[in-house]
Amino acid sequence: MNIYIHVESSSRELDSKLLLGILAASKGHHVMVSNLSDFIRSMKLGLLEPGIFHTKSLTPADDKIFRHQKIIENNFQLTSLDEEGGLVDYDYKKFAVTRYSNRTIEQSSAVFGWGSQDVDTLKKIYPKHSSKIHKTGSPRADLWKSFFYSYWDIPKKLPQKPFILVSSNLGIFNNKKRISELIEWHKKAGYYQRDPKLMKKHLNWIVDEGKMMLHYIDAIKILAKNNNLFEIVLRPHPVEGSELWKVLLEDTRNVHVINDGPITPWVNSSFAVLHNGCTTSIEASISGKPVITYVPFEQLYNRGMANELGHLVKNENELLLKVNEIFQESRSIDFKNKEQDINLKLNEKVFIDDSELAAEKIINVWESLESKKLQKSNNIKKLKLFLYLMNLRDKIKKKILKLINKNFENNQKFPPLNKKEIHNSFNKLVNIFNIKEKIKYEILSDHTIMIFRKY
Q1: Among residues of the chain, what percentage have pLDDT more than 70?
Q2: Taking the CA atoms of the chain, what radius of gyration do you get in angstroms?
Q3: Does 323 share its domain with 215?
Q4: Does residue 412 register a pLDDT over 90?
């Protein structure tokens, strides 16, 4: 069966979708992992045989509904796991009505959920589609387990000393796009129509996040000033710009602003994670890493369940004491990451099954959708040539745009694939699962990988 897996943000999704692809290929399926552009252009030209198209959300925006309908009319089936997940919110109701609709779920053949909360809420709001909604968990959460610890490399820019990871979540105030562009995008996508209070929330978030940045800066400077034994790595959210952080922290010693690659190896290598309302706190909690939740003022909008995790500190003195306490514990010979008592609400958010991976559950559902229509093989040589020509055209176009407009920026959500990193990731996953079948991968373009069993 042909399976096409959509990657939007490679730092967030690529590793988990390689996991999905390799496990599916080991069972005989042909898998393409790619960005949306390569998939759509290839499909429109008739270069892709029908299969399952697995996407990152079912947001009911007009352009997405139209696109998905065209995919279905080309005899593909649609499945989805929302990569945003609504993980930091207390409940899932608003997320369920802004990110889904009866129409988008009707278009899909299967909808996968992170845990009990999103699955139960979706089934309640969209009861006629309940049979399509499956509690599988997320392959991203699979990779947070200790089972995959050997998969993650040590970060290339790892500080020489132990470090605390500060995970920022200021994606409105410090976004790479202007506030007007963000508001306009949400408006065109219909978010404000589906949730009339969302615009006010976004505007209040700007106030909250601006204050939070000031508190982060002060806190980081105090931590750096009062301890020379560890360093600080600040990790901006993927949609944040790093330039403002670098300017504000340029005179502070032992501080590194780094947003390269996935965050998991940074979580694994740190002695603790400091955050406010960040999904990384959920990952750190599940993987057993100490979490420090910093809430230095009463926020207009509470950042939800994420701020109930780990050690709560409310001012700089409490923060300094707690960080030093955890750092001293981490230096102990007997110290190791402990399996933490996971918050009951977190268990409802993220389904962790010790007997079967979320990736395996998703593949099982895909196989229940299998039919002869989805099994015809693709002409990989023809597809590779087309994608090469399209990528070459795109590169020339971007160079011209850069000459015309020096401020032109490429979409950095999915930078070109690194062949060495893909080779390393592929072999590690094959070895972790001790896959005996001969699985092969081929990089077809800067943003597309084909994975299949070699007979």
Answers
A1: 95
A2: 22
A3: yes
A4: no
* CATH code assigned at 305: 3.40.50.2000
Q: Is the separation of the CB atoms in 252 and 221 below 8 Å?
A: yes
Q: What is the dihedral of CA 337, 113, 265, 243, to 10 degrees?
A: -120
In this structure, are 130 and 23 located in the same domain? yes
- What's this model's pTM, rounded to 2 decimal places? 0.91
What is the 8-class DSSP label of residue 237?
Answer: -
The SS3 of residue 209 is helix
**Contact criterion met (CB below 8 Å) for 109 and 77:** yes
Q: Which domain holds residue 182?
A: 156-341
Domain limit, last residue, from 324, 341, 358: 341
The one-letter amino acid at 215: H
The separation between CA 452 and the C-alpha centre of its own chain, rounded to angstroms, equals 24
Q: Judging by beta carbons within 10 Å of its beta carbon (0-12, 13-18, 19+), is residue 251 exposed, middle or buried?
A: exposed
151 assigned to some structural domain: no
CB burial of 287-298 (b: ≥16 within 10 Å; e: otherwise) equals bbbbbbbbbbee
End-to-end CA distance of the chain: 15
Same domain for 323 and 182: yes
Q: Which helix (H) or strand (E) holds 111?
A: strand 110-113
**What is the structure's pLDDT at 204?**
85
The CATH code of the domain that includes 107 is 3.40.50
pLDDT at 407 over 90: no
Beta carbons of 194 and 97 less than 8 angstroms apart: yes
Total domains, the chain: 2
Q: What pLDDT, in 10s, does the model give residues 140-176?
A: 999 999 899 999 999 988 999 999 999 999 988 998 8
